[in-house]
Amino acid sequence: MVCHMDLSKRLLEQFLAVAEEKHFGRAAESLSMSQPPLSQAIQRLERGLGVTLLERGPSSPRGVRLTPAGAAFATEARRLLDSQSAAIERVRRVAHGLEGDVRVGYVSILSHRHLPWLLRATAEELPGLRVHLHQDSTATLAEMLSAGTLDLAFVRDPSPLSDDLAVRDFAVERIVAALPHEHRLAGSDAIALTDLRDEDFVLPSGDALPSLAQQAQLACRDAGFTPRCRAGADDLTGLLGYVAAGLCVSLLPEDLRDFPIPGIAFVPLRGSSPHLETTIAAVHRPDADAAVLRLLDLIHRHARP
Amino acid sequence: MVCHMDLSKRLLEQFLAVAEEKHFGRAAESLSMSQPPLSQAIQRLERGLGVTLLERGPSSPRGVRLTPAGAAFATEARRLLDSQSAAIERVRRVAHGLEGDVRVGYVSILSHRHLPWLLRATAEELPGLRVHLHQDSTATLAEMLSAGTLDLAFVRDPSPLSDDLAVRDFAVERIVAALPHEHRLAGSDAIALTDLRDEDFVLPSGDALPSLAQQAQLACRDAGFTPRCRAGADDLTGLLGYVAAGLCVSLLPEDLRDFPIPGIAFVPLRGSSPHLETTIAAVHRPDADAAVLRLLDLIHRHARP
DNA sequence: CAGGTCCATATGGCAGACCATATCAAAGGG
DNA sequence: CCCTTTGATATGGTCTGCCATATGGACCTG
To answer: Per residue in B232-241, pLDDT tens?
Structure first.
């Protein structure tokens, strides 16, 4: 006997009122309605369930009593109402971005410096958000954003990205010189880029870290020379390896200073060419959902940590 | 913003259909309705929740997509429907006596022989029933039944009980002679009650175990003598103690044979006086609920184990 | 650019739910 | 034995929800 009973919120409340008052008249009063339709509603309920919930008599003048099934149903009704409220509340929180899953991508360079405060702030301000992390190259992250398999990505200098992605800069890092420890300028407080014009450089090659390679080229051009590239590398460890080996110098974001790599000195560069800066930005689809917007807001408020 | 949303079963099913098909037309078809009212229903739902559940466009020709909130709501909707079905099912089971709590009372004499199979059979046939046991005197059990603090009681010879309680006999035990081991008749296969006419008896005294005392008195009268009572006891251990001490004989239900008491021999009595039998019965209120009726039926089917 | 797909909107009809007033039947108390 | 209490029943009105048909507008596709 499959029952097509509806158990509307209203009906459950009516039954609970009767179950608590054990009296149709008072229950009707507390529901701001008259007694007859309440009787009918309960009868409909009992008919729909095929179960007698209330013991009406034969001694009615003292109200009604709950049958065992009625007592059980009262418990269940309360649970159902609670579940319903909780479900609505949960959906609202998801819609408002206070709860849910966000898939966040980042390029490796950012992991050690920007992820920690971001994750900490998220856990504190948006404890309902579950952040799923994914590290990849800038290009792949952009593809994933467009494909919808990623919600937010942190990259460096994303200016040449696809047009249908929104970009939000949130931090600027200076580019500094990375020199071998034994280099003659390694102990300087600051040097000019032209001081390196005769050095051998190692810069990102191929499609790897394109913005970094481009910035370096442009900055040297601004300084009046073309860097002599004796080596290339397509990831950060390669670049750092060449420098640490004492074979080359490089131009890298200053936050790499925190990397525990022996044999490398990071020396600030004098001058303020726009190409000696690198921008860190959050990228997302223009139709990002509320959780992403919350995260963007959080990032904006905590920017330049 | 407290929401008076109703979330009727129908509405949830409609939303789930759309969420699964991701297509209003097909969803409407699977619901055996036309598309426009379905659109309206979903719009009502979204308006009621104050949340956008579906992403309609702008590129509609490929159906709709779920927003994060919509996906969350689909999960919640399924849970709500399941909870609702489960609640109805549970109430039905309670009403049919397949689930619930039953408070069962018994007098001590019955505990070791009849409770085990009763509880075992209940656990097997009615695993949803929770049986709460309570041991007390026949009189107190009857009071508790009338007061509604007990649902079912097992007693011996409950004939003189209150009129507003229903009685259901389910087993008959013979009364046997309890003799000290060193008694001259202790080794007999069977004896006549008159063989004990000159013995000292110990029988229940006061209001304790009234049926047992009465049966003994009447049986002796049938046998043509009045038992000489040198001692009394108001519980079973007292009676057995006197016998084991070798001071008295007694008349007791044969199921006591299973008690591990050294020093006592139980010897069957010849003859078939109705007073040499003791009836075991289940007592309950006439308006007992379904669970009690199930237990009574179970007892009836397993009677005389 | 024409056709097709898909969802939204508009309109009208119907059934059922909900409600209030009035009345009835049963049981217990003075 | 009458009266109060209490829940069930009867009746009529209103309104909302639900539905179907018809139409419009946005978008993609060939």
So the answer is: 888 888 888 8
